[in-house]
Amino acid sequence: MGVEYQHIALVRGRYRPSAERIARFAQALAEAGWIASPKTLREKKVPSSRLPKAASRPGAMFRGPAQTWEPAPFAPTAQWLRSKKPSLELAWPMVNVLELGWRFPVEPLPFYREGLYYELGIHWSQYYRDVVSDEADGPEFGGHCGCGADLALPRKNILEPTFYRTACLHCGEDPATFESGQTLHRFALVIDCGKNLPEDTGKPASLHPQLRALRNSLFSAKFTQVGVIC
Ligand SMILES: [Zn+2]
């Protein structure tokens, strides 16, 4: 009841790929079948009613200023990506994954495998975001610098995630270097699995090796995987 799973592969600290690199990543994801273009969705006869409304035509969606999902170009250009500064949440939904011959991006597979769906997304931001997880090990980032200064940026909308400065205005410290700043990031690959929780095999879930290889071929950074149950 209400239990959902997100698998996040983030790069701790200031790393943030260029808009051009993200655009190439989207193309590579489509070529490898991790996301589906409007053409593929038509060919595979995916009923648009199964997809989130915002993505049902273009195949992609992004979180708009009102924090609701809005249609996004399936293959975003670098120019479009840059127009979404200072932060972007972009996602491509996939439904009936195994029935349609696709692969599920997280291992192990959920126990119940009929009608699997996921949303593959990216978080790309000028400022830091944190991962809020009940299961996190170690100290939690409280939003303050060691010198006491508040690092959180004011929010325009109550639904907006909190963003943090990458350097303290008072002492210049980078909060991602704090022990409590382990999951502060400007770039993350986010697989929203919804209610499709990976089967509990006693081992932590991980990205599908082929998706991991594709990711590593485009981004030369060290990724940390975090599973979030919410
Ligand atoms: Zn400080």
Structure description:
The chain is an alpha+beta fold and 230 residues long. The protein has one domain (19-133, 145-216). Helices cover 15% and strands 24% of the residues. A hairpin with a 5-residue loop joins β2 (60-63) and β3 (69-72). α1 (19-31) packs antiparallel against α4 (209-218). The termini are close together. The chain binds zinc ion. Residues 145, 147, 149, 168, 170-171, 173 line the site of zinc ion.
Keywords:
two-stranded antiparallel ribbon; seven-stranded antiparallel β-sheet; binds zinc ion; 4 helices; alpha+beta; 24% strand; 15% helix; 230 residues
Through-space gap between termini: 11 Å
Q: What is the gyration radius calculated from CA atoms?
A: 18 Å
| N-to-C SSE string, H for helix and E for strand | EHHEEHEEEEEHE
Q: pLDDT below 50 for ≥5 consecutive residues: which ranges?
A: none
Strand content: 15-25%
Q: How would you describe the oligomerization state of the chains in this entry?
A: single chain
Ligands: zinc ion
Give the strand tally.
9
The shape is: globular
Main beta sheet, described? 7 strands, antiparallel
Structural domains: how many: 1
- Summed over residues and divided by their number, the pLDDT gives a mean of 94
Widest sheet: strand ordering: 3-2-4-6-7-1-9
In DSSP terms, counting alpha (H) and pi (I) runs of 4 or more, how many helices? 4
Return the structural class: alpha+beta
- Assign a percent range to the helix content: 10-25%
